[in-house]
Every structure is written in C-alpha cells, then in structure tokens.
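Course assignment 3, question 2. Fill in each field.
Student: A.L.
Task: Predict the tertiary structure for the chain below.
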Amino acid sequence: MALGSEGSDSSLHFPRILCLHGGGTNARIFRMQCRAFKYHLGSEFRFVFAAPFPARPGPDVTAVYSNCGPFRGWLRPVDETEDQDFYAAEASMLIQNSINTATIADNHLGATGEVVGVLGFARIAASLLYNQQLRCQQLDGGSEMKTNSVMNWPNFRFAVLLAGRGRLVWLMPDVPMPQDLFLHCSPLPYRPCCKTTLLAGKGYISMTSCSCLRSMSTASKM
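Answer field:
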C-alpha cells in the first residue's frame, strides 16, 4: 500500500520511504498516524506500507481504531513444538516478501523512485538497519561472517525509529545469531552507518553515526 499525493501522479518519481507500523495495527492506521509526515515530506517523498502477519490488536488500539481491522504485525506466535530453525527461515522470507510485495504493488501504480529510507517502530526497523550493516561489512571484507541468504532488501540511507523497545529480529537464519545482542538490551557492536532520527516526545533528536557517534543535535519540534 502506498501513500503519495492522492489523486495525482506527481509523487510517482519521488524517492520512497518504507513505513513499518507496530505490531497489532495495520497500514491503514499507520497511514492516518503519518499524516504529519505526509504534510511536511509529501512533496519530496512517497510512502510505502508493509507488514506480513495477522495479529491481535495492540494495547489501546481498539479504543481508537476498533473498526480499522484486520490487524497485522511483524512476528507470529511460535508453538514450542515447531522447528525453530525452520520458523526463523520462514519468518525472514515472509518479512522480505511483504516488503518486496508492497514495493512491487507501488511499482504497478507507476512509482519509479528508489526506496531510500525506513520509518517504523524500532524492533523491525532497527533490525533491518542492523541486517543491512552486516551485509555491508561482508561486502567490504570487514566481517568473517558468511551467509548464503539471497535477500533483495532495500538499501536504506536514513531511518526514523519510533518507540525504541524490544529485542531486534534476526533476519539471516543461515548465520549464527549473536546471543548477547538479541537476548537482552546491549550496545550494538557497530552503529548503523546511516543517518538515524530517533523521535522523543513532541520533538526529535537527530543523530548521524558511522561506527561511532559523531554528532548529535536537537532539532525543532515537528
């Protein structure tokens, strides 16, 4: 599902931002929640929404959006009897397929812009950034980790992360997962090499990082 300039083709060539809503909501709800972003950025970016799994509504969602189902999320419940390795591979594939399907559907509407950014709730959005970082390290020869995964992920140049809670989601099932990073909160061994904006309350903090935090500035309120 895409959110551009409704009733106009003017946004079809714009670079695109992948919008990843939190668990237990959906693209329709996140589209309404992103109206301020559209107001400020709609003349320069096109918005694409995705999420793969059916889910129960999140906390307090039904108080406002009870008639906006069905609800979706980025993780699905796992039965203890399931093969965990198979589940991890399947989940990674479905997440990737959801993102690719949303982008392809937007392409069919005539959109041609590159997917350059991600706007989303931090668990999945941060996971995509960390996944991209590890791929870049492999390509640059900076990591000994090898993977056979063929993942056609977008190449993000910036990100906006909201509600930074929860553990990261490991998106490379054929690579051993770093337990210390994904089982509890701990600093990333490398910071994502892209510009990341972390929203905080009514304002936001803009951070630019590349291996180490180089600058931090408080931006004006949105």
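Instructor remarks: The chain has one domain: 2-218. Confidence is low (pLDDT under 50) at residues 2-7, 143-150, 182-222.
Grade: pending
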